[in-house]
Every structure is written in structure tokens, then in C-alpha cells.
Amino acid sequence: MHEDNSAAGDETHRILTSLKKTGRTFAQALPVIAGMLLLTSLAHTLFAPQQFARLFGRHDGLDALLGTALGSIAAGPPLASYLLGGELRAGGVSLLAVTALVVSWVTVGLVQLPAEALFLGRRFAITRNLVAFVFTLAVAWLTVQTLRGFGASLP
Amino acid sequence: MKRQDAKSGYGRWWFLATVAALYTVCAALAPELALRALAHAWQALRHMLPVLALVFVLMVVFDLVLNPRRLAQQLGRPGGARGWLLALAAGILSAGPIYAWYPLLAELRGKGMRVSTAAVFLYARAIKLPLLPLLFHYFGTAYSVVLSLYLAGFALLSGLVMERISRSTESAD
């Protein structure tokens, strides 16, 4: 009985620790989430959706490149990229560019490059980021083409 | 790493402060526009709150189920297809900022972890299981599934490419 109580106590402690840890992670992400929400809302109000589309919509390839470049230099939790991507998409930016932004945000990290090079080697870090940059374009293109091929309605 | 952690911690607040400053300027020049932007942000937040709650629950569950250190140790062991699949799974399940994983990966590389396995792990981190509800919310189920499958496939491909490049540069040296 005593052992049962002890095991239950350990489990409660583990859950509480996990809740605290996740709460801390969330609290750390809070300024970024709030900032992204406010910034995208301000941009959405200041610029008509057509203006977003005009910044991108010249050529599919250039759109994807611009999206990838933006995602590569951006730093912040992936959650922020979904938020920004969702708003850009609602503003009329092509799915190709938005996908490129969301993918490069999490696979290419120019901001983290010095740290990656420090721990895993300069050659590894540069090559991996270059490969990820090229792959972003491929993933974005293939995702959009696959959805079109299957006749799925694009988000 | 401490310096970088501190820097990124302050960076978040600087970012929010900059956005707040932008709003202040906007409110001074065009108060009606600033209010409309705030109303839009509030509406977006209300749509997001249930999804964020689900993300929180999933993060707690993953944290309870997974032990990052044990996960990373498993990565250092096998080579071949099993090692790649393990790296893929570990990358998908790993949580926290990427720079938190660098020291552990460096340690494992020192103990013989392959270039390909490290590359697969780092690329697979693009798939965020706890954040999938948010991806569904913004882009729909079909898009989220297709994108995740491609990310998993390209994570393995990145391992293959990195291994090839590493071998060719080693032989050139």
C-alpha cells in the first residue's frame, strides 16, 4: 500500500514537472507568438492583401526563392512560421512561396549556423544548410504539385 | 552556449517591444488603423486559443513519454537502414530549440555517429508532431499530410546526399 502511494506520488511529481517545463517553454514562446500576431495583424491592416500578392506573385520560381530566403534568415519557433504563413496565404501569397517559407524556417538556419558549425563542424553545417535550402524548393514544389495532381483543394 | 541562450531570450522581448513601438507610432499617426489592427489580432488569437491548448497538452504528453538523453543515445548506435529510420523517428519526436541538441549530437559524432544519421535527425525536426493541429488549422489536413510525408522522405534523402558529399570531400582531402 505504501509502495503504491509512493509510485502514485512519483507519477504526480513527474506530471507536475512536465507541466511546469511545458509551461516554461510556452511562456518563452509567448512574446514571439504575441509579437507575430500583432505584427501580421498590423501588416494585414496596413497593406491590402493584393499588395502581399504583388510582392511575391511575379514568377513561381522567384516566389519560392523569396519564401525560402525569408524562412532561412528568420529565427523563432516554428509556430510563428505557421502563423505568418497562414496570414500570407490569406493575403493571397502563393502556396508555393508560403510552403517554402514554412519549410526553410525549420530546416535552414542562418542564425544558428555559427552554433551548428561550432559543434558539428563548419563544413558539415554549411553543406547541410545548402542542401536543406535546395530541398526546401523541391519539397514546396512537390507538395503543391501533389495536391494539384490529386485534385485536392488548395488551402 | 549560455551567451547565445541569453541573447535569444532577450531577443524575444526585443521583438515584442519593437512591435509595440510600431503600434505606438501607428496609434499616434492613425489611431483608427491601430485599433483595427488590434481587433484583427484579438480575433486571430481567439481562433488560435483552442489549438494552442491542444498543442500544450500534446507537448506535455511527449515530454512525459520521451527521454531526450535516451533518445539521443539510441542514435549513436546502429548504422544502415535501421539507424536512418531511428534518426528519422528521433528527429520527429525531439523537442526544444535546435541549438539545445548540438552539444549532444557533437558528443555522439565524436563516438562514431555517421554524418548521414546526424543530417537525417536535423532535417526530420521539421516535422513537429505537437504542432500538427496548428498546421491542420491553417492549411488543412491534406496539405499537412502531404507536406509531412515529403519532409520525412527528404530527411532520408538529405542523409544520403550528406554522406555522399562527406565521402567525396574526404577522398579529395
UniProtKB/TrEMBL annotation, chain B:
UniProt entry keywords in alphabetical sequence: Membrane, Transmembrane, Transmembrane helix
Transmembrane segments: 12-35, 47-66, 86-105, 142-162
Protein name: Permease
